[in-house]
Amino acid sequence: MEEEYPSAGRGALSVKDVGRLLLRCADRPGLVAAVSAFLAGAGANIVSLDQHATEQSGGTFMQRTIFNLPGLTAARDALERDFRQQVASQFDMDFRLTEAAKPKRVAIMASKEDHCLLDLLWRNRRRELDMSVVMVISNHADLADQVRAFSVPFLHVPATKENRVDAEQRQLDLLRGNVDLVVLARYMQILTPQFLAEVSCPLINIHHSFSARVHRGGAVSQGKGTRSQTRRRDSPLRDREPRRRPDHRTGRGAGRSPPWRRGSGPSRRRCRAPCSVACGAMAL
Q1: Which of 100, 115, 44 is nearest to 75 (CA)?
Q2: Domain that holds residue 136
């Protein structure tokens, strides 16, 4: 049965020929027009488009575009090359072009605690998550038998403060070029800035409370929870429950009376937009 791509309240779209374009650059006029014109010229139909600028002017611009292009798999490399030459180079964009039909290759890093790790492996086995777990890396061997029961390679890389440089180099050798995402599932070691700079893919840090921190390109964003903050269509950890898609205008108390009508203090609501993590950190 072919996978389906969730469509906010209107059934589901096939993931076949669906592409995702994530980009980030300095804000300036003409960015949306340039990207839309390029996709239209390539014969693509834009399915959804989310954008955000950090400031009214002079900030950082982030955009996530979902599009349909017949024959995308065959055209992907040429499309990426043309976008880099015609659009990205002109606006100095950092961008990523992926296919929805290809599950993300995910590595999980863990230590001794098993609940986050085993929950991910179990959900992945039940096909609740759009991803392929290609390896589990741990600085302890305690969870080896439990992980191998899921037919996932378990790689023991001892890591302490004393051997951190050598351990991180070994981890980088395993990860670079082999995964699209790293999930830190209660990995109880501090990763160095050098590791984050060289791993070449986003990292999600799942804390004991299942809140998520995402690192990408030197920026770290923190969200309230993994399920609420990563349920973007291109995220393997998304919440699959159908609900209204929030955006940057939607706060935690959307639909409720404003605080001054409830007699409460100043609002401290945080944007729960799916791109609040993806845009700020170019993750997933």
Answers
A1: 44
A2: 104-239+274-281
